Amino acid sequence: MNTAILLSQINQYVTLNEAETSYLESIVITRSFKKNEVIVQSGEPARYLILVNAGFLMTYYTDKDNVDHVVQFASNGWWTGDLYSLAQDVPTIYTTKALTDGEVLLLPKLAHNQLLEKYTKFEKYFRIIFHNALIRLQFRFIENYSTTTEERYLAFRARYPNIEQHVAQKYIASYLGITPEFLSKIRKKLSRG
Amino acid sequence: MNTAILLSQINQYVTLNEAETSYLESIVITRSFKKNEVIVQSGEPARYLILVNAGFLMTYYTDKDNVDHVVQFASNGWWTGDLYSLAQDVPTIYTTKALTDGEVLLLPKLAHNQLLEKYTKFEKYFRIIFHNALIRLQFRFIENYSTTTEERYLAFRARYPNIEQHVAQKYIASYLGITPEFLSKIRKKLSRG
DNA sequence: CGTCTATTTGAATGTACTCAAAAGCGGTGG
DNA sequence: CCACCGCTTTTGAGTACATTCAAATAGACG
After folding, report:
1. Cα–Cα distance, B63 to B40 (Å, whole number)
2. Nearest residue to A127 (alpha-carbon basis) of B119, B50, B38, B156
3. Which residues of A touch B62 (CB under 8 A)?
4. Does residue B182 carry a pLDDT above 80?
5. Given this model, what pLDDT does residue A2 score?
6. Chain A residues with CB inside 8 Å of B64's CB?
7. The model scores a pTM over 0.90
8. Which residues are A91's β-sheet partners?
9. The domain defined by A4-119 carries CATH number 2.60.120.10
10. What are the structural domain ranges in chain A?
């Protein structure tokens, strides 16, 4: 089992001893996936926190008019998973799908809770992880209010240069909150100007 | 010093013993404020996590074109403060201002760090707080993509019925990400139809 | 090669914005 | 207590950004 990425992720913020490391390794599940495979299906309760070990994933939700909206692209070292569904045991509205072949580590809900209870170091780790995720989401939020769509597309390309090659433009449009047609027009404008 | 709200806030998620309670009480600072007073000024590094004890606050940031965008209204029992500025010691882009007379409890940055180190129960508490804040922000995010502006205004009114009376319409418009003129037109339409 | 899906292009439409002016409202001083 | 001042809200006209719908073109993959 390849937990190197998980451990280096965690050791950025806390220093795990042997007991903590081996306990963690004993409870995570490795799962490999193929391109286009669905890792988490909306409508079912979320069961895992997911860490991407290799490859690319995207997560989208389906609104009441049956339109998909991409909310996250995830690669190497990124956590994903529906915290709300995990906490409340309600069906998740998110679907997570593979953009490439790859591998994830699954941390089952129950194991996660036990981990927090058994070693407070993981309380600290997840406190920091949630803290950082909150800051990033706040940043994305205010970016939406103070930049044009064109600027946001350029920022996206700058921030995730290696994602664009794996994902259809319509999903990038969805992530940016615009239609594929309009993204196509922005790209045309940029290539001319 | 009135720490009742703080303690009941925290005891929703963890159970503090006497040592933890009295330590916490020894490090928070009470500060009362008047309507229109600025609690935190953008441009300076954030120094406190802030819990509202009484009254209403709003937090907004000022973008590169000098336009204000309201990001949060806070009342009784709500935390506020710029996590990024606190963590990185950079100037905050947010200004926090009083909408009414009231009182806040201030948790200084250093005291917060000491609290986390000294009692791991607070790691758990803040892990949960950040976790919940993240879920709420994710929800707000997807709401923006899948509802009309009119629906968002109605949802806002339903969610914060007691805030509308304290705050100028232009700030609600700002919170919703629209111009005051457009909110006025939405309201006219709603009152007719 | 053919089929299916993604992307591009264009025309018509709609949603929200800008700018300007009028009306409403609250607080302050005479 | 009322009149005035400054700020907020309303209203309207014109405009810009982004959407919808439809059709043409390009690409991917069996």
Report:
1. 17
2. B119
3. none
4. yes
5. 84
6. 146
7. yes
8. A45
9. yes
10. 4-119
